[in-house]
Amino acid sequence: MNLTTTTRQRWAWAFYDWANSAFITTVMVAFFPIFFRKYWANGLPSEDITLHLGTANALASVSIMLLAPFLGTVADQGGIKKPMMAAFVTLGVCATLGLTLVGESQWQWAMFAFVLAVVGFLGANIFYDSLLVDVAEEKDFNRVSALGYALGYLGGGLLFAVCVLLTLKPEWFGLVDKTAAVRWAFGITAAWWALFSIPLWLWVRERAPAQAVRPSLPVLLRQSVGQLRDTFRHIRQLRVVWLFLLAYWFYIDGVDTVILMSVDYGKALGFADDSLITALLITQFIAFPAALVFGWVGNKWGAKRGILAGLAGYVLITIMASRMENAQEFYLLAASVGLVQGGVQALSRSLYASLIPAEQAAEFFGFYNMLGKFAAVLGPLLVGWVGVLTGSPRLGLLAVLLLFGLGAWLLWKVPRD
């Protein structure tokens, strides 16, 4: 394979991060929770709305958490990572577009479309992550993975900024009100996701499966069940893999908790909504160059050292956040999170890719994504309960240090050579 083709494949692969990150920022984090509360569930008690939002996120996450390893095994056995990824992307894009059609007070339909969209997003990521081993050699995993995350932060931040402007000044775009603007934001996000996925479909080539002839669907399913059972039985022998996964489960739980709880923490300290949106944009745009730098660090000093450096940064950030007093300090912390967030995520993906058998990449990334979803449970509960028991959200936030500490200690024990 010549250099030009290889470079084109890597950029095509990385641009999917640019495509799907818009969904995370614009739909999942920002507009869906706000619009659900103010429009689709208008008139319901606040505690019911919170329950419905939590239920929607939980249904989507649990569905993928349970299916991820099996889906990955099917894709590996049949050599169909791209077709399966395409199916989930189509589901996510269509469901996001469907949100534009849901009327006022139709919260059940909004929940249904949102769950499908999140399932599409999470499911596609299993196969997208596993395609890293098809577009790059092991020596380039760090740099290529970091390129994907960097483009994701930049693309997601740009579209989010446009959508924020759309909702703040709908009249500039010929829209009647903010409700119409939010609907357009959902539609634009769906179109963005679909459009920038095209390079991957055109230019990324996945490696041929071990079987010369693709088996029929019943045979493929039987083979996949058997392969998954064997992997469960033997994974305890792959010490380097399960030790990394255990470390990843702890420290990515801390990372996800900082992401998920930052807005709520800011609200608890009395910061305005405008300050929270500004902080989110700061994180997005600083994470773009920072992720690229971490890719270089991973190549020069190793992915494990790069992750450990990022986790040390998170420890300092958490301690600083527990003493934060004003919005200016919140912006500084948002910038600090941007410096390490993308790097830890990118190097984790590339380090894991270097530890697993390439011919079972989708299956092993199924486990990786399963733990990533399950990790989003422990941290928020830990922060919430410590905050309740101590009566202080600041002490609750400091509980995250336990997750970073355990994750770093276990990662240190991963034998890299």
What is the number of helical segments per DSSP (H or I, 4+ residues)?
A: 16
Average pLDDT for all residues: 82
Rg from C-alpha positions? 21 Å
The helix-and-strand class reads mainly alpha
Overall strand count: 0
> What sequence of helices (H) and strands (E) makes up the elements?
HHHHHHHHHHHHHHHH
Distance between the termini: 28 Å
Low-confidence stretches: none
Tell me about the largest β-sheet: none
Strand content: under 5%
Residues in helices, as a percent range? over 70%
What general form does the structure show?
A: globular
How is this structure best described in words?
It is built from 16 helices and no strands. It has helices at about 5-40, 45-80, 80-100, 105-130, 130-135, 140-170, 180-195, 200-205, 215-235, 240-270, 275-300, 305-320, 325-355, 360-390, 395-400, 400-410. α1 (about 5-40) packs parallel to α6 (about 140-170), α2 runs parallel beside α4 (about 105-130) and α6 runs antiparallel to α13 (about 325-355). The longest helix has about 40 residues, at about 5-40. It is globular, with a radius of gyration of 21 Å. The two termini are about 30 Å apart.
Task: Give the SSE map.
Elements: H1 3-40, H2 46-78, H3 81-98, H4 107-130, H5 132-135, H6 141-168, H7 178-195, H8 198-203, H9 217-234, H10 239-268, H11 273-301, H12 303-321, H13 327-355, H14 361-390, H15 393-398, H16 400-412
Helix pairs in contact: 1-4, 1-6, 1-7, 2-4, 2-9, 2-14, 3-4, 3-7, 4-14, 6-7, 6-11, 6-13, 10-13, 10-14, 10-16, 11-12, 11-13, 12-13, 12-16
Main location: membrane
Domain Major facilitator superfamily (MFS) profile: 240-417
Organism: Thiothrix litoralis
